Amino acid sequence: MSNGRSPSADVRALHEDILAWYDEHQRDLPWREPDCSAWGVLLSEVMAQQTPLARVEPLWREWMERWPTPADLAAAPPGEVIRAWGRLGYPRRALRLHEAACAIVDRHGGEVPADHDLLLALPGIGTYTAAAVSSFAFGDPRVVVDTNVRRVLARTLSGEAQAAPTLTRAESDLAASVMPEDRDAANTWNVAVMELGALVCTARSPGCDVCPVTQHCAWFRAGRPPHTGPVRRGQAWHGTDRQARGALLAVLRTATGSVPHAALAAVWDDDVQRERALDSLVADGLVEPLPRRRFRLPA
Question: Rounded CA gap, 245 and 235, in Å?
């Protein structure tokens, strides 16, 4: 992939060292296998958003066994899809996957589209996911920028301890500017930088002693100065509406049919917060209200 400029010697050396490290240290994940379908890649990318891969892999395997194609998932009731999502978190992703599967069947004959713009047009598929599927499933080296990529590039090239709290245009431009020109190398680079950020160049305890690119890293050469910019806050869980939603959904996932309101009240005793969480689940399409104050997963 050409960006219109020849990479500097430093950038070429960065390419070589990160790609060599990835070749030796990459994790053995099923969606990275050459025979993994584009649907399998898409599933992995949606499941892995804000979720450790150790939690994703077993669920991904279950879904691929149960729903190996978009048509299989599209034929399933939405409630079963939510139930199968289990406790992976952010359950709206399950509904978005179901909607995307239905759109793939309706618009593309059941095949995940290779065209980047068509991927972007699918329900719930944003810029990152479309780029990742294009690169990892179809060999179209789009610029793939996740939290790990941003952190690695912020440290190695910008000398910053952390990336900005949210993705900036400058970061996207920087990521595009350092993509290898060779198509295959560019696709591998996308996943290799992610892997380096996930395993070595981590947010809290970077393993600079085992990092393959400390000789190229502006942050390391500067003495690893502390972050002085805005702090990216982690999302709270205990006592939040998110926890309340999860507790209510857990009751509905384990039920064989509808449940009375009293069963939901029994797992969350803050009346105001419980009703707010329940209303939001209904608004999100994750819960269906029935007469006589009963509730179920959507049919």
Answer: 15
